[in-house]
Amino acid sequence: MNYFLILYDGSTRSIIEEEEFSSEDRHLALERRFALEKEYRDAPNVEVVVFGSESHEALEHTHSRYFKTVSQMTNSLHG
């Protein structure tokens, strides 16, 4: 399993930064997360998350709000 760190701006609905870590480097992903949380603590619209996933494709499917526009998500519900 790999770990994906995402720095996400909710106000613009865009990814600011994305990093992938191997399972052996999980601790580095968490250290990076904590550093970014500290850096962006005064930015209420910025999220810092770390997800474990078998692949980036699987992550895009399970956490699509980080990767798709609102229009794309709406269309996928209706079609």
Question: What does this entry look like structurally?
Answer:
This protein is an alpha+beta fold and 79 residues long. It contains 3 helices and 3 strands; from the N terminus they run ββαβαα. The protein has a 3-stranded antiparallel β-sheet with strand order 2-1-3. β1 and β2 (14-21) form a beta hairpin. It is flat. The N and C termini lie far apart (31 Å). The model has no long low-confidence stretch (mean pLDDT 91).
Described by strand count, sense and barrel closure, the largest sheet is:
3 strands, antiparallel
The helix content, as a percent range, equals 25-40%
Poorly predicted regions are none
Measured by DSSP, the beta-strand proportion falls in 25-35%
The overall pLDDT, averaged over residues, is: 91
Reading the helices and strands in chain order gives EEHEHH
**Which value, in Å, is the CA radius of gyration?**
13 Å
Class inferred from helices and paired strands = alpha+beta
By DSSP (H or I, 4+ residues per run), the number of helices equals 3
- Adjacency order of strands in the biggest sheet: 2-1-3
Shape summary = flat
Whole-Å distance between the termini? 31 Å
Strands, total number = 3
